Amino acid sequence: HETTLWLLVLLSILSVAFIIERFIILRNMKLSSYKMSTRIRETLNSNNLKDIEELSRDRETLEGRALSYGLRHVKSNGEKGLEEIFDSYSRMERPLVEKHLNFLATVGSNAPFIGLLGTVFGIMDAFRGLATSQGDATVVMIGISKALVATAIGLIVAIPAVISYNYYNKQVRFIFQSLEGLKSLCIAYAKTYQNQKGAP
Fold first, then answer.
1. Do the Cβ atoms of 20 and 166 come closer than 8 Å?
2. Which end of the chain is more exposed for a tag (fewer CB within 10 A), N or C?
């Protein structure tokens, strides 16, 4: 019973630490994605190759690095294989962006069961206490009330983890949708670049 409580406390501490860490990281990445999306729209309106190349110099953002890889590929190999470059980059970066999210999902789905296990052990102890207390129901009631604390703690640990997981997952989707938009921009750049290169 006490072991499950300590396990839940440990999971709670780790969950809070990961929730705060992901909040800071993903918020900064999302703000960068918003800014980059605005700059991409401005670039599409200008239809200027130099503006696109300027975006690729921003190595601090996920999008800037992706665009840098994409433009380097275009200048070396043209449009062929460009989509695969972006897809490979997304697969490479996704584990870093989704770091700790699987832990939060696991805690959210399993903490209530750990709490329930603690409650079952507590109730078993309460009935053992009843057997040695010559039928005093008060002992059982106190034991059961203590045992239910484990279920309550399990829910308290699980609920923030589930909410955070869903919220951060939505942010991750937004970030990678921004990368998809960059892929289209880079393909457009490749066609314009090849046309200008082929022009006399």
1. no
2. C
